[in-house]
Design a protein that fits this description.
The structure holds two protein chains of two kinds. Chain A is of the alpha/beta class. Chain A contains nine helices and ten strands. Chain A is globular and about 50 Å long. Chain B is built from ten helices and 14 strands. Chain B is an alpha/beta fold. Classes of the chains: A alpha/beta, B alpha/beta. The interface between A and B is large, with 37 and 37 residues.
Chain lengths: 255, 305
């Protein structure tokens, strides 16, 4: 069942094998199996209630699987969740930087949590401010800067400890169309540097930017391939058309 | 006849101007979209129109009633679905609905025909607590509650945020059904691709309106040559195209790039040849019509300058 290795990526950063999560009689995630490779941008799509969030919580070591297994960055999510957490970056739309700390203070705070040394913190801060072109706003409090900047900063902070893989849960929701594209430039940069990117989105044009996408329906992965292959297979013009066709087959409206 | 009239409306929060001299007029029975990213001022404008906030300056009327002077009467004429779920999580589906009906002095049975299209989809779960509903079902319950007193004007603040592509389509289908029944609907969204489901739209950014018209007319205002460019690898091609001396903007759009040339007489064949000399021999360049998102980005960046 091993999927072909895309773009010559070889090292598996995520391997899920029959990963399952039940809540009482309800099976939220139903024996999903897939691999994600180093440096890949992997789009994790699905309708609301399809089980995406539950799957992500298991893959990030926050929720114990009911069955099957998964390794992330080489660590078993059930047996070694704290090693998983140390090896990953995580950012969600609701992930909030501290609103009343400045840009610079937020970077220093998270760098401290990740155990970076003082000199590293200085260097990393300068790199981030330069890359995001935020030097002029370094001493502004977070609540006073635009959402698009916050999201880019939150992404850079999630990468501070140079994790193997970063999980992005709807990172661009509500962001203006230019900032949304700038955010994807950052994703490409990170992937080019070897970071694996695992991303969810409801903007279907963004699904086209991924190396591969999976589409979850009712707890199972119904399709997994490159956007181009999916469109060919389903005779669809866009990944959105593929998504609509598969998701309409879904029965459940999860609680 | 105009259902909503907004004249030079502004709202300040301290030193921040959330809504900046907005004027617009929405006709009776129109499905009108307010399109813009988070922080554009959409929710603030909505709250003023449903009388939850007072404007700093300017005036607005809804269904002929002033949002400040006639706020009591106005509240009985509008339905409002805020962006954040705000029903009683520890009441069941049917209890929530009965509560909202009683507040407005009506009964669910009397209004059933009005809400049937929406409510039927959640009726099998009517005994379930609202807090235990999925996102899609919560939204349908909130919409049922917003309709229960037969409002003349319906305000939906970002009903499709965080909602998957299929459920979004279903909601828009529902709004079209409601509009057929004569309701005036003002809906806000940050998804540019939803503009085409509206009769008319206003583009909003940083408190200001960047344009008001039908989606087709707004798209038609794009006045520079726009080419869709397809080729591989796409992201490398994007960086290369940005170095073209006449490139005005280059943005990714799904599986293609949208390239805008600064010259009115730009030629797609010339661009294709230029790309092939730079290692993109199989690039395809096609002139296309702009969409709302192209226009929004173009107007947004000229605002900044």
């Amino acid at each position: 069942m091993e999927a072909p290795t895309p773009h010559g990526h070889s090292r598996e950063v995520i391997n899920a094998d029959g990963l399952t999560r039940r809540f009482g009689a309800f099976t939220a995630v139903d024996a999903i199996s897939f691999s994600v490779f180093a440096g890949e941008i992997f789009g994790f799509l699905g309708a609301n209630g399809a089980g995406k969030t539950t799957a992500i919580r298991m893959l990030t070591g926050l929720l114990e699987p009911s069955g099957g297994r998964a390794t992330v960055a080489g660590f078993d999510v059930a047996r070694n969740p704290s090693a998983v957490k140390r090896s990953i970056g995580y950012m969600s739309q609701r992930f909030s930087l501290y609103q009343d700390l400045t840009v610079r203070e937020n970077i220093a705070f998270y760098a401290g949590i990740y155990g970076l040394k003082r000199q590293e913190i200085r260097d990393r801060t300068a790199t981030i401010l330069g890359r995001l072109d935020l030097g002029h706003a370094a001493d502004q409090q977070i609540h006073s800067i635009p959402l698009g900047w916050k999201q880019k900063l939150a992404f850079s902070v999630a990468l501070l400890h140079q994790p193997d893989i970063v999980f992005l849960d709807e990172p661009t929701g509500g962001v203006d169309p230019i900032a949304r594209r700038q955010f994807w430039d950052l994703i490409y940069e990170a992937a080019n540097e070897g970071t694996t990117v695992f991303v969810t989105t409801h903007y279907m044009d963004e699904a086209e930017y991924c190396d591969r996408v999976s589409i979850m329906v009712d707890g199972r992965i119904e399709a997994l391939d490159t956007p181009g292959e999916l469109k060919t297979r389903y005779g669809a013009a866009t990944v959105d058309d593929v998504f609509v066709r598969l998701a309409r087959g879904g029965e459940r409206d999860a609680p | 006849m105009s259902s909503i009239v907004v004249h030079e409306l502004s709202k300040d929060f301290g030193h921040t101007r959330a809504v900046d001299r907005v004027s617009l007029s929405i006709d009776d029975g129109e499905l009108f979209g307010l399109i813009g990213p988070d922080g554009a001022g959409k929710s603030t404008l909505f709250r003023i129109l449903v009388t939850l906030l007072r404007p700093t300056s300017g005036r607005a009327t809804v269904d002929g009633l002033d949002v400040v002077d006639d706020y009591r009467e106005l509240r009985t004429r509008v339905g409002y679905m805020p962006g954040r779920f705000s029903l009683y999580e520890d009441l069941s589906v049917e209890e929530n609905l009965a509560f909202f009906a009683s507040v407005f002095g009506t009964r669910v049975e009397d209004q059933y025909a009005l809400i049937a299209d929406v409510y039927r989809q959640i009726e099998p779960f009517k005994k379930r607590l609202a807090g235990a509903l999925s996102g899609g079902m919560k939204q349908k319950l909130a919409l049922s509650c917003a309709l229960i007193h037969r409002p003349r004007v319906l305000f939906l603040d970002e009903p499709t945020t965080g909602v998957d592509s299929v459920s979004r389509r279903e909601l828009w289908d529902l709004l079209h059904t409601l509009r057929e029944g004569g309701l005036t609907i003002l809906v806000s969204t940050s998804y540019m691709d939803e503009a085409h489901r509206c009769d008319r739209v206003a583009l909003m950014h940083r408190g200001r309106l960047l344009g008001i018209d039908t989606p087709e007319a707004i798209a038609g205002t794009y006045d520079l040559p726009l080419f869709a460019v397809v080729g591989a690898p796409l992201h490398a091609m994007l960086r290369t195209l940005r170095e073209h001396q006449h490139a005005k903007t280059v943005y990714s759009f799904g599986d293609s790039l949208h390239y805008t040339d600064a010259r009115a007489d730009a030629n797609p064949d010339e661009l294709r040849r230029w790309l092939s000399t730079r290692g993109f021999g199989d690039a395809v360049v096609k002139p296309i019509n702009a969409g709302i998102e192209d226009v929004f980005m173009s107007r947004m960046s000229s605002e900044v300058r």
